[in-house]
Amino acid sequence: MPLYEHVYLARQDLSTQQVEELTAKLSAVITDAGGKIAKTEYWGLKSLTYRISKNRKAHLTLLNVEAPSSALNEVERQERLSEDVLRYLTIRVEEHEEGPSAMMRKSDRDDRGDRGDRGDRGDRGDRGDRGGRERRPRGDDDAVTAED
Q: What's the CA gap between 147 and 71, in Å, rounded?
């Protein structure tokens, strides 16, 4: 059976429990169609880059699915009908990722305080002439005054 990663965004005014119920409903559609859910991850309430239907935040959920394409078509149809789902994306993959997804690893790293090590940048030295034209101090213009 084909493998899929399915992510959906739910409205910000839903509670976490309502999002879990929506996930259970979508999972039931997949299992009823002969598929199975390999993993479910709730990524939390995240800020969106731009507003979607007047929402600045959304609940994100990932489903790793092993199911026929007809099951995913039905899930997407249910999501289009639901007013609670803002967006969804389904991608076919060769194999599911083991362990936590990249989004969960990122939040783990943030919790530990790791910000990445840029290493020694060394002595940058004199940056020299910063280019272009010569600059004059302000107020030193050649304007004609009324006394002339």
A: 87
From CA 66, how far away is CA 70, in angstroms rounded? 12
Q: CA dist 112 to 25, 32, 70, 120, Å?
A: 34, 40, 42, 22
pLDDT at 20: 95
Domains of the chain: 3-96 (3.30.70.60)
User: What pLDDT was estimated at residue 113?
Assistant: 58
Close Cβ partners of 112 (under 8 Å, ≥ 6 residues apart): none
Start-to-end C-alpha separation, the chain:
91
pLDDT for 137? 66
Tokens of 94: 């060769």
Residue owning tokens 């007047």: 54
